[in-house]
Write a structure and sequence with these properties.
With 305 residues, the chain is α+β, with helices and mostly antiparallel strands. 30% of the residues lie in helices and 35% in strands. It is built from eight helices and 18 strands. The chain is globular. It starts with a strand and ends with a strand. 46% of the residues are buried.
Length: 305
């Protein structure tokens, strides 16, 4: 099984583009000489179990066909199994998604032939992974790009159905959410030090630079530097946020006096018993707080351009 790929296909990725294009992609993989088996997901988070089952069967190369969310589920499948050391399992991706923030960091191509060439070349790194724990540590979610608490989790919750219509509809939902969302009380610690205890707009814990379809909210982040990048947008008003919108994509959002940026190894976020303040990881909505986030360094073996 060492040289055989297990391909996880999410046919809903990219507003259904992955499903439409899978037959052509499959032919290209065969033509490139890749030895593989594949499975299509039919339900949300099914890819996690499919990945675990593949590893249990001896596969060490998992190819994700879909967006950041599909790869997020593959990553959770890898880290929620205990048969094979996670550092030995190699991930690769053919990117077909809506947000594409993780692939943007590495500058993956959209062209399928170019993506398959990268997979065959097999250049890989071991990047950091984040672990978010909640419900008193009884539930865990791994992430390969970022976690967010506050506004971005609200956006994920209220725009989930819009992604099937493409990026334009998603951005419309993001702007609509901005005017519906109210700042929430957060108590935030970085490596045990109190960073803020106030109402806050957003708390992002980044491994990579980008979230939400290209917003550069962690512009100083590097996926393999051994640090979490905490970006905390404090009690920003709606007017301040609207003036900052262009800076969300340039990274200059971090220059605002109500924004803190901290590099650390662990983050703890207390939500004062709120039943509405949620978190998200790589665009996947998670449950209510409190939340603890820690770094697992050099944990994910992944093929990059």
């Amino acid at each position: 099984m060492n040289n055989k790929y297990f391909v996880c296909v999410n046919p809903m990725s990219g507003a259904g583009k992955a499903g439409k294009d899978w037959t052509a992609i499959k032919e290209k993989l065969h033509a490139a000489g890749l030895n593989f088996e594949y499975v299509l997901s039919t339900a949300h988070r099914e890819t996690i179990l499919q990945t675990q089952n593949a590893i249990e069967s001896g596969y060490k190369k998992i190819l994700s066909v879909g967006g950041d969310g599909t790869l997020h589920h593959v990553v959770n499948g890898i880290f929620l199994q205990n048969k094979i050391d996670y550092t030995e399992i190699e991930t690769s991706i053919i990117s077909i998604g809506t947000g594409n923030d993780w692939v943007r960091y590495y500058n993956f191509p959209n062209n399928y032939d170019d993506a398959i060439k990268i997979i065959k070349q097999g250049k890989h790194i071991h990047q950091d992974v984040g672990l978010l724990s909640y419900e008193n540590g009884t539930k865990k979610e791994y992430f390969m790009n970022f976690a967010g608490i506050g506004f971005d989790a609200y956006v994920v919750e209220h725009t989930a159905d819009l992604k099937k219509y493409g990026a334009g509809a998603y951005y419309y939902g993001l702007l609509k959410s901005l005017f519906q969302y109210n700042n929430v009380p957060l108590e935030v610690y970085a490596d045990g030090n109190l960073v803020a205890k106030d109402k806050a707009f957003i708390a992002i814990i980044g491994l990579g630079k980008y979230i939400g379809g290209g917003m550069k909210l962690c512009k100083n982040a590097t996926l393999d530097d051994g640090f979490l990048d905490l970006t905390l947008g404090k009690n920003l008003t709606k007017f301040e946020i609207t003036t900052l919108l262009p800076k969300l994509f340039s990274g200059n959002f971090l220059d605002h006096p109500k924004v803190n940026a901290v590099k650390c190894k662990k983050v703890k976020v207390l939500t004062n018993g709120s039943k509405t303040t949620k978190a998200e990881t790589d665009g996947e909505l998670i449950g209510i707080g409190d939340f603890e986030i820690e770094l697992i360094p050099k944990a994910l073996k992944t093929v990059i351009p």
